[in-house]
Amino acid sequence: MPAAGKEKLKVLIRRAAINRRVREVAKEISHDFKGERVHLIGVLKGACIFLSDLVREINLECSIDFIAVSSYGKGKESSGQVRVLKDLDSSIEGLNVVLVEDILDTGLTLSYLLRVLQQRKPKALRVAALLDKPSRRLKQVEGDYIGFSIPNEFVVGYGLDHSERYRNLKDVCVLKLPADGPSH
Ligand code: IMP
Question: Which residue has the CA at smallest separation from atom 22 of ligand 1?
Answer without folding.
Answer: 160
